[in-house]
Amino acid sequence: MPPTVWINGGFVESPADASISAFDAGVQHSVGLFETLLACGPEGRVFRVEKHIERLARSAQELGLTESLQTRALAELVESVVARSELTGEDTDRRARVRLTVTGGDLNMLATSGRGPSDPTVMVHAQPATGYPAEMFEKGVSASIADAKANPLDPFTGHKTVNYWWRLRELQVASGKGAGEAIVLQVTNHVTGGAVSNLFAVMDGALVTPLAHGEEEPGAIHAPVLPGVTRGAIIECAERAGIGCDRRLVPIADVLDADEVFLTNSSWGVLPVVKIEAKPIAGGVPGPVTTKLRDALETLIREEP
User: CA-based diameter of the chain, in Å?
Assistant: First the structure.
């Protein structure tokens, strides 16, 4: 089934008809933000759509893209695209992948403060969710260490901008090594997460995860880690299960010596990591905490209103 696409005020007949100006700030200078969301169930519920859009709106304001985003209207737009796509239907296990992209449109960054009215380009498309082999979750994946590093002095880290090339390149390199994800370090060699995911380690029965943007102490250096929506859901699931979670700077040595490691994002939920480079994690199989939290997240996705 082809994607269902809405762009700048209306649906298009086919993806080939979706177009933006060659002078759009997103095309010219990678000025833009995006969210990837999961829709599921007979009603096509979009999991935590408000949290995704609130994050995008905060980034748009912090980075000077626009202050004019209407979060409730955007949430309703996303839901309407999913409803039109008919990607969920009667099958309760059927899922759709939804992407919301907001670029600078005709924004002239040199002629505006970023605090006034603007006319961004808004695009939403829904398509069948990526299918992953069950073996990935039953046996876990390996991860490599990325060459690129995140800089906490870069104010754009910790935001989901459309400047994603370097992350996808690291994921491409990892795939060439037979790995499922690339772990990105800061310039200080503390862990940020995966190239396209957040990271959790299990140590002595509790979770440890890198401190994300917005969780820093007042006056502390910027955290170059995206505050993932699925990451937040996992922390909630852990709290309900009586599992603690420490959000802090995480040296790579802590991850390599952890009892369990897993990665989270909207597409795969919880993905166990059983080897990093040549170093097996624990016994080289998904651990009990990882499995418990993966099941808890799946229940939350199915049942949350």
Answer: 57
